[in-house]
From TrEMBL:
Keywords on record: Lyase
InterPro entries: ACMSD, Amidohydro-rel, Metal_Hydrolase
Record has Ribosomal protein as a keyword: no
PANTHER family according to UniProt: 2-AMINO-3-CARBOXYLMUCONATE-6-SEMIALDEHYDE DECARBOXYLASE, ISO-OROTATE DECARBOXYLASE (EUROFUNG)
SUPFAM superfamilies: Metallo-dependent hydrolases
Residue ranges of every copy of the Amidohydrolase-related domain listed in the record: 6-331
The name this protein goes by in its record: Amidohydrolase
Organism: Streptomyces graminofaciens
Domain of life: Bacteria
Length: 332
């Protein structure tokens, strides 16, 4: 049997979640911050871009046809990060994650051999995180999607320890996908909010997990970093040097920072075959998974072709194309 081609970075849009929060004053404030971070030129492009992709983001038949055209057999479907709503109060946050979980599960249930889903966790309320993870798993989802931080709290915060522990114990998948960069208006032109902001946020979040010892305390975590882990995997030498040269950098984790890359997973969405080869050299061919960011414009419409452009050895190509993800998602 041929290993399926598996895309671990694909999104769903959930109108019911947006309807739920539509009249909340916190939403207006969050959107104002998002507008400042992106700038008017980016927002003028984003609206039409998303609108023309709504069928792919909401209609299973359209999604499957697009997958067929790409040569993708299986997608791991995660909510659009715009649904995080980390501004929400506890009551609203619980409604958001429950609705998102149930809607994503219902979408995937229409093609259960081809679509597997992830839910959401309200990171702004750490006390809800374990309950949210359990709810996602109860819906038949494989885990949850999380951002790189929440206002006032990094992923290294001790408040998340029960969440990491439960995720490791259940074998749940965690998909680290940033939404919004705290460099704010410095990135408000030329879509720097995404092109620079996303890989920066990935690098910061992963550094918090590594240097704080989260990965030492929870070695069983199954965490997939979007966008190839951002800048960190290809610049990890600087982290290694700091860990060796400075007592403050080396105090929190037991091993060389680069060694933790082999405990994480990364999608292949780096838009450059040279960078993809460097990512594989840093993390290992068994730690990289095909990712497209379906169906957004910062993704790739031909993820297999993008992988082929890296000219990997056959075994590595097929591992990244689907073998690694098939094992991680327990498809075989």
């Amino acid at each position: 049997m041929t290993t399926p081609t598996v895309d671990v970075h694909a999104h769903i849009l959930l109108p019911e979640v947006e309807a739920l929060v539509a009249d909340h004053p916190g939403l207006a404030e969050a959107r104002a911050l998002d507008a400042r971070r992106n700038g008017p030129a980016a927002l003028a492009v984003n609206g039409p871009m998303v609108r023309e992709r709504i069928p792919k983001l909401t209609d299973v038949t359209v999604r499957l046809a697009a997958m067929d055209a790409q040569g993708v057999d299986v997608q791991l479907v995660s909510p659009s990060p715009s649904h995080y709503h980390y501004w929400a109060d506890e009551e609203t946050a619980e409604k958001v994650y429950r609705l998102a979980d149930e809607a994503t599960a219902a979408h995937c249930a229409q093609a259960p051999q081809r679509l597997h889903g992830l839910g959401l966790v309200p990171l702004q309320h750490p006390e809800l995180a374990v309950h949210a993870l359990e709810h996602a798993l109860e819906q038949g989802l494989l885990g949850v999607e999380i951002s790189s931080h929440t206002p006032g709290r990094e992923l290294s915060d001790p408040a998340y320890e029960p969440f990491w522990s439960r995720a490791a114990a259940t074998g749940a998948l965690l998909f680290l996908h940033p939404f919004g960069c705290t460099l704010d208006e410095r990135l408000d032109r030329w879509y720097l909010s995404n092109t620079v902001g996303q890989p920066t946020e990935n690098a910061v979040a992963l550094s918090h997990l590594i240097f704080s010892g989260v990965l030492d305390r929870h070695p069983g975590l199954k965490l997939i970093a979007a966008h190839g882990g951002g800048y960190l995997p290809t610049h990890i030498g600087r982290s290694d040097h700091a860990w060796q040269a400075r007592s403050d950098a080396g105090a929190g984790c037991a091993h060389l920072p680069s060694s933790y890359l082999k405990r994480l997973y990364f999608d292949s969405l780096v838009h450059d075959p040279h960078v993809l080869r460097a990512l594989i050299a840093a993390a290992g061919a068994d730690r990289v998974l095909l990712g497209s960011d379906f169906p957004f414009d910062m993704g790739t419409e031909d993820p297999v072709g993008a992988l082929r452009a890296a000219r990997l050895p056959d075994a590595d190509f097929h591992a990244v194309r689907g073998g690694n993800a098939a094992a991680l998602l327990r498809l075989t």
